[in-house]
Design brief:
This protein is of the alpha/beta class. It is built from 22 helices and 17 strands.
């Protein structure tokens, strides 16, 4: 019986506990020091192992699985810089409250700090972004199955306990790492069973009564739906009862009938926004994406934030009350206690303006034959079948979706908005696809290229996903920011790449189609989805024209609102 045999047996008990507490998917990258944990994972009959060439992609793939399923996914890697490559996904998991179990192999204590190969200081490597850390014992100190089973249970349970997030288990192993096949008896031990609350607290009676008292006498109010993991559909009914407009971002799950259809355009119009400052705004979930949305909640005379995941969703520090409760039951309880308000001039003004803005936006963008990125976002979201998942990239795509998407049921929208990075986007999408969701993605060309390694490795591994990629040859977002005035805009910020996405797709074994007309998008996406596999639907976009078109749409809405 060798060290490798003992290590594998201990990892077997550890993995049994992970499975018993909800872990079904694990991402693994090749490495020597991680041999015991990799073998235990791969040989477990109830674990689905996804192998990835590099650790950053592996971690973001696991993140996609966690976001799609709500269950903890695990990622395992060897020691050294392999572990450091997990950091970006750990940060996103922490800030987006996604359950992730991070397993890093390590050298034993006697080989740390002495110049041993492929060894770095991995203790608390992820700092405050890991909600729990443990440097495990080295396997081999005697019958210890109970220790390893309890450790696995703790890791899985802590990752999914409210609020969920990443946990880090550092696993040191001594050589030899490869088992001989000898049987190891860990001795009898009691199986560890851990229970934990996985949802936000239910509202207390005092919370319901306080919020009810606040909203009852307020006519000029608004509900703002930010990013949410929880089902808060009752907020739609609450807005109707109160006679308040509902301004909902796509990732809130509240961009459904009953929400404003062009809310971001209303908020972006200075005249309308200044004349419609709410006396009370109730923000549910994360802080708004857009500057106009942030301005709305920052200027409301009173702001209440329902923050179920402890996101601290108040960058302006304006909230008079922040409450950590499940938003659905809270909204439902308040709606039951408030008499439905008769139609008011306040709500009618929002609805009339919303109808005007929607009509102007749609008529204008439908008149353009060439693809426009706002129309791409609108048409893609509207065309996907019920039950689909749309993963939207950071920078301009998430803002275009927020501005142009019409309310609808049956579509789940996910995004890496915890840290709002573009890194790991392809991996996240493919992780979502691996959860058996009908998966589509909307991202910029830089997001695709930033994670091209994942596309090259994973495109031919049985995943089905359609990437819709407006290709403006660089970072168009900076053309909407102050950097647009700098002479270094192109070289330092826009960074045009000049790469051929068709050749990238061909190298990866992915499908590719390029559309030239706006009306060709929806048929192309449909054909790609029916063809199975990973597809890139490329939409060419001229950066300067795109900026001009956005400006034209905003101006047209402002002009129409000004002559109401």
């Amino acid at each position: 019986m060798s060290e490798g045999d003992v290590s594998l047996a201990c990892m077997g008990a550890f993995v049994d506990a992970l499975v018993d507490h909800g872990v079904e998917n694990v991402c693994v990258s090749p490495g020597s020091r991680s041999t015991p944990i990799a073998l235990a994972l791969y040989r477990h009959p109830r674990i689905r192992v996804h192998v990835h060439l590099d650790e950053r992609s592996s971690a973001f793939f696991a993140l996609g699985l966690a976001k799609a399923t709500g269950n903890p996914a695990a990622v395992a890697c060897t020691s050294g810089t392999a572990a450091a490559n997990l950091f970006p996904a750990v940060v996103e998991a922490s800030l987006s409250r996604s359950p992730l179990v991070v397993l890093t192999a390590d050298r034993p204590a006697e080989l740390r700090g002495v110049g041993a190969n492929q060894t770095i200081d991995q203790l608390e490597l992820f700092g405050k972004y890991a909600k729990w850390f443990v440097d495990a014992e080295v396997p081999g100190g005697g019958p210890e199955g109970g220790y390893w089973h309890a450790l696995g249970a703790d890791a899985a349970v802590r990752s999914r306990g409210h609020p969920p997030g990443p946990v880090h288990v550092n696993l040191p192993f001594r050589e030899p790492l490869v088992p001989s096949g000898a049987k190891v008896e860990l001795g009898g031990f009691a199986l560890a069973r851990r229970e934990v609350g996985v949802r936000p607290p239910l509202p207390r009676g005092s919370d319901v009564e306080r919020l009810t008292a606040m909203v009852k006498g307020v006519e000029r109010g608004a509900i703002v739906g930010g990013g949410l993991r929880q089902n808060a559909a009752a907020a739609v009914a609450l807005g109707r009862v109160l006679g308040w407009p509902l301004i909902a971002e796509p990732a809130s799950g509240l961009r459904v009938p009953g929400a404003l259809t062009a809310g971001q355009f209303l908020l972006a119009d200075q005249d309308f926004a200044s004349a419609h400052v709410p006396d009370l705004a109730v923000q549910i979930g994360a802080a708004p994406i857009s500057r106009a949305g942030l301005a709305l909640v920052a200027t409301a005379k009173t702001l209440v934030i329902v923050d179920p995941d402890r996101l601290i969703a108040d960058p302006a520090r304006h909230a008079s009350w922040t409450i950590e409760v499940d938003p659905g039951p809270l909204a439902a309880a308040v709606a039951e206690r408030v008499d439905e308000r008769a139609p008011t001039a306040w709500l009618q003004e929002w609805q009339d303006a919303d109808a005007i803005a929607r009509r102007v936006v749609d008529e204008l963008i439908d008149s353009w034959d060439e693809p426009f990125e706002g129309r791409v976002a609108r048409d893609l979201a509207a065309s996907l079948s019920d039950g689909s998942t749309l993963v939207v990239g950071s920078s301009m795509p998430v803002r275009d979706l927020d501005a142009f998407m019409q309310p609808r049921n049956g579509l789940r929208v996910l995004a890496n908005r915890g840290a709002s990075g573009i890194d790991g986007f392809v991996s996240t999408v493919l992780g979502v696809a691996a959860s058996d969701a009908r998966t589509y993605a909307l991202c910029g060309d830089l997001s695709l290229l930033h994670d091209a390694g994942s596309l090259l490795w994973s495109a031919k591994r049985g995943h089905d996903a359609v990437f819709v990629v407006p290709n403006n040859d660089g970072g168009v977002m900076f053309s909407f920011l102050g950097q647009r005035e700098l002479p270094e805009l192109e070289v330092l910020f826009t960074t045009p790449h000049g790469l051929d996405l068709a050749k990238l797709a061909d190298a990866a074994g992915a499908g590719h189609v390029r559309i030239e007309r706006a009306g060709d998008l929806v048929p192309a996406v449909g054909r790609a989805a029916n063809a199975d596999g990973v597809w890139i639907v490329e939409v060419p976009s001229d950066r300067r024209m795109n900026v001009a078109r956005h400006t034209e749409v905003t101006a047209a809405v402002g002009a129409a609102l000004g002559v109401r």
